[in-house]
Amino acid sequence: MLDDEDAPIHPLFAGAPSSTEFKKLRKRIVRETREAIETYGMVERGARWLVCLSGGKDSYTLLAVLHELKWRGLLPVDLLACNLDQGQPGFPATVLPEFLARMGVPHRIEYQDTYSIVKEKVPAGRTYCALCSRLRRGNLYRIAREEGCSAVVLGHHRDDILETFFMNLFHGGRLATMPPKLLNEDGDLFVCRPLAFVAERDCDRFARAMNYPIIPCDLCGSQEGLQRMQVKQMLDGWEQRTPGRRQVMFRALMNARPSHLCDPSIFDFAGLMRGESAHFTEQVPVIRHTD
Predict the structure, then answer these.
(1) Pairing of strands 78-85, 48-52
(2) Quick check: helix, strand or coil at residue 48?
């Protein structure tokens, strides 16, 4: 169905470039999004999703692709777009509601001045991200419950997931990242990231080619020296020197071998006994230290 060029499209794709390059880009993003949704079992038939829209390239890509899948009968859920206006000075409050109305997308715009709280609570020189995201998440959970949604759907992509992994590795002392699907602490909402397999570069190319009205985040983006930016620059350097490195690392996150790590809480090292069938621990070659 996705290969049918003459099939009707959702208004979010109206005016799309007709170039072969863009068609390949669009198909790749749609295919990878559908694959992530199926791989991680994100769909509860008949459910309602709160699709969080910041106005950035990633959330526009998410919105368009989910509506395309639903338009073509491949995503059996109701979609409600939501923008949380956090009271940032100069935020163009009319851009998103006008865009969503023009596209015929059901939506809710919520105003909550978390900006003032973040500026008041965070000491000078510290980053805003942790408190800002916590306040935003709390409001999105509330809105999801009020709207009868079972999932909060976010626009984090493959590169966000990789960057978070290295942030935890370098600064948190743990192997962890943002999972494509998780259950919130209260156990009543899923948090889903359907763009988990999609590269950030593809989101950027797609949103710009579609000429969506991108809104920058001046609250976080205005801060220099963020640890995440340092990690992004490191990954950019690796990718530049060895194209495809990001995808290889992401595959590693999907191919964990607890028996070849060092955490006794996820593998019973003490319980290993000689003479037992232990072929499963050696069936995949592992690069070892050779000094």
Answers:
(1) parallel
(2) strand
Of 83, 51, 74, the C-alpha closest to 195 is: 51
Structure tokens at 60: 């526009």
CA gap 128, 126 in Å, rounded: 7
Q: What is the pLDDT of residues 45-74, one digit of tens each?
A: 779 999 999 999 999 999 999 999 999 999
Count other C-beta atoms under 10 Å from residue 105's C-beta: 20
Which two structure tokens, joined as six digits, stand for 137?
């998440």
Locate 82 and state its tokens. 């939501």
Instruction: Find residue 183's DSSP bridge partners.
Output: 190
Q: What is the pLDDT of residues 186-225, one digit of tens each?
A: 999 999 999 999 999 999 999 999 999 998 765 454 544 5
- CA distance linking residue 240 with residue 238, whole number of Å: 5
Q: Please give the order of strands across the beta sheet that includes 107-111.
A: 107-111, 78-85, 48-52, 151-153, 190-192, 181-183
Determine how many CB atoms are found less than 10 A away from the CB of residue 63: 26
Strands (DSSP E) contained in the chain are 48-52, 78-85, 107-111, 151-153, 181-183, 190-192
- CB-based contact 36:78 (threshold 8 Å): no
Distance CA 247, CA 198 (A): 10
Cα angle 166, 168, 171 (rounded to 5 degrees) comes to: 100
Q: Please, how many CA atoms are within 13 Å of residue 195, restricted to the half-sphere of its CB? A: 32
* Separation CA 190–CA 14 (nearest Å): 31
Contact 165, 235 (CB under 8 A): no
The pLDDT value recorded for residue 7 is 55
Nearest to 82 by CA among 48, 49, 50: 50
